[in-house]
Design brief:
It contains 13 helices and three strands. The protein is mainly alpha-helical. Among the domains are: 157 residues, Orthogonal Bundle (Ribonuclease iii, N-terminal Endonuclease Domain, Chain A); 71 residues, Double Stranded RNA Binding Domain. The protein has a three-stranded antiparallel sheet, covered by helices on one side. It is extended and about 80 Å long. It starts with a helix and ends with a helix. The relative contact order is 0.09. Its main location: mitochondrion.
Length: 354
């Protein structure tokens, strides 16, 4: 038995020696070293203890009082003004930008401090202006530009709808939101902190007025288009203008255009004998379907159909083209609207002066 096992082992050894050396050669394997940075064991407990101490101090003395950006470290007002101009892509005059960011309350507070120090008369007055005049110019320009822009885009939309959309875009909450994200609230010179909403919205309007004064209406129009009109993206224009009597408005528009009066027809109905009926009503004019809509009753369905018909008449349906905001393709549109606003502005000034 042992002899047979020995012969078998010798046979296996001879067969292994007959294999080519290629199968037994060793190949070099590249090794990539990855360094992993670890914190010391005491670091996590130290952060935990430090966090508990901060929480205990805040619980005992209350939260830390908020301070304006100008009272914190690394503050340089000149650098902040320069950075703001580059951030919004405008070349402001230093004096004009400082005026646009100076609130009336700041001037009054500084003059009161001078009087407390013993200065009287002309010596107590500051040689700086507040932003009231620039804010008035900017507010009028924003409103005129938005209305003129919407008239060119939605040519069939009535003036009431354009005014409602303009009010939505020029409301105080939206202007404060835009100014806060542009960093305007950090560089406003104001006597109160936190900055009141009316002061922040006034400062943003004054910035638009400063652009009109320094670089012209076209640059100011680009600012309004990029930062204010862009908030209409993904918005339904029809929801911004609540229409209380859609059928009456449709009748008025068709009469103005010399078309036949609208006629409501029942297209189909389902479940009329149940507690959840559904009616489908269509509105026709000159034997053409203007729109159709569903409703639980005939009156609701007729009103909904009139609203859909108004969308088709105004060109504000869901599949209508998006608002033209492309800076390259819509460059001519901005130029046209800015020139129109500028002509209107000059005409109003001439009428007031005369």
């Amino acid at each position: 038995m042992a002899t047979a096992l020995a012969k078998h082992a010798l046979t296996c050894v001879r067969r292994c020696r007959q294999f080519p050396r290629v199968f037994v050669q060793r190949k070099a394997v590249s090794v990539v070293r990855v360094d992993v940075r670890h914190h010391a064991r005491w670091f996590a407990p130290f952060l935990f203890a430090l966090r508990r101490q901060v929480q205990a101090i805040q619980h005992k003395y209350g939260p830390e009082e908020k301070k304006p950006r100008s009272h914190q470290e690394n503050w340089d007002y000149d650098s902040e003004l320069y950075a703001f101009g580059k951030r919004v892509g405008e070349d402001f005059t230093d004096a004009t930008l400082r005026t646009a960011l100076t609130d009336k309350s700041y001037v009054e507070r500084e003059e009161a401090r001078r009087k407390e120090m013993g200065l009287e008369g002309e010596a107590a007055k500051l040689d700086i202006q507040d932003n009231q005049e620039l804010a008035q110019t900017g507010g009028v320009f924003i409103s005129d530009y938005i209305k003129a822009y919407l008239r060119h885009v939605y040519r069939q939309l009535p003036e009431e709808g354009i005014g409602a959309i303009c009010e939505h875009l020029t409301r105080q909450e939206l202007l404060v939101y835009i100014g806060r994200h542009l960093g305007v609230t950090d560089i406003i010179l104001c006597a109160d902190f936190p900055i009141p909403h009316e002061v922040a919205s006034t400062a943003l309007q004054a910035i638009v007025g400063a652009i009109v004064q320094d670089t012209g209406a076209q640059k100011a129009g680009l600012f309004v288009r990029d930062f204010i009109l862009s908030h209409l993206v993904d918005k339904d224009i029809n929801e911004l203008w609540p229409i209380t009597n859609p059928m009456g408005l449709l009748v008025e528009i068709l009469e103005r255009e010399g078309r036949a009066l609208p006629e409501a027809r029942l297209l189909r109905q389902v479940g009329t004998s149940t507690i959840m009926p559904l009616y489908m009503v269509g509105v026709y004019s000159d034997k053409k379907l203007l729109g159709w809509g569903p409703g639980e009753t005939l009156a609701i369905a007729e009103e909904e159909a009139a609203r859909v018909a108004l969308k088709h008449v105004f060109g504000t349906t869901e599949n209508s083209p998006p608002l033209p905001l492309d800076p390259v393709k819509c460059k001519h549109l901005n130029t046209t609207v800015a020139e129109e606003v500028q002509r209107t502005r000059l005409g109003n000034q001439a009428a007031v002066s005369s």
